[in-house]
Amino acid sequence: MASIEAGEVRPFEERDVRELLDLMRGLADFEGYADEFQITELDIVERGLCATPDFSAYVVPRSGTNELLGMAVTYRIDWTYFGRSNVVLKELFVRENARGLGVGKKLMNVVMKEARGNGAKKLLWTILPCNRRAKSFYSALGATPDTKWENWEVLL
Fold first, then answer.
1. I want to staple 62 with a disulfide (CB 3.0 to 4.6 A). Which of 3, 25, 67, 152 is the partner?
2. pTM
3. Per-residue pLDDT reduced to its tens digit, 97-137
């Protein structure tokens, strides 16, 4: 079996839609909400590749191919109580066969750089309480849990 080499992070493009959706489904399966997952290729195109996109996505292809090894999906909260935006990391996922190759770190570095460059005050995300690997990964990047806020929701 040939070794896997990760390419450079880049914004997703129309040619990536099918594989980006596959990565999103992979995350839904990993986090246990695959039965509720409803995103389609058309959703990604209409909401991510339009004139005013609802989200940004960065991808890491396998070197020399169009196969995507990982993704980071973000969106902005443009107005917050301190007068600057926050960036929310909605999804970070690396294919199992590419974990340990630095794909997640590459994605996080680009997301943090982009957030800083856009004047964001914070980069926020959630982690499943049982996901120790994610907690360790994010801690190594200097992140800490937010102990001031609880997640709440109402199903509509």
1. 67
2. 0.93
3. 999 999 999 999 999 999 999 999 999 999 999 999 999 99
| Residue whose token pair is 């992979």 | 26
Query: CB of 86 within 8 A of CB of 121?
Result: yes
**SS3 letters for the chain?**
CCCCCECCCEECCHHHHHHHHHHHHHHHHHHCCHHHCCCCHHHHHHHHCCCCCCCEEEEEEECCCCCEEEEEEEEEECCCCCCCCEEEEEEEEECHHHCCCCHHHHHHHHHHHHHHHCCCCEEECCCCCCCHHHHHHHHHCCCCCCCCCCCCCCCC
CATH architecture under which domain 10-140 falls: 3-Layer(aba) Sandwich (3.40)
| Contacts with 4 (C-beta within 8 Å, 6 or more apart), sequence order | 62, 69, 97, 98, 101
List average pLDDT for each run of 10 residues in the chain, which is 156 residues long.
84 98 97 97 98 97 95 93 92 96 97 96 95 96 93 90
Query: CA-CA distances (angstroms) from residue 10 to 72, 89, 111, 116?
Result: 10, 16, 11, 17
State CA 6 to chain mean position distance: 17
Q: Could you give phi then psi for residue 103, rounded to 5 degrees?
A: -65, -50
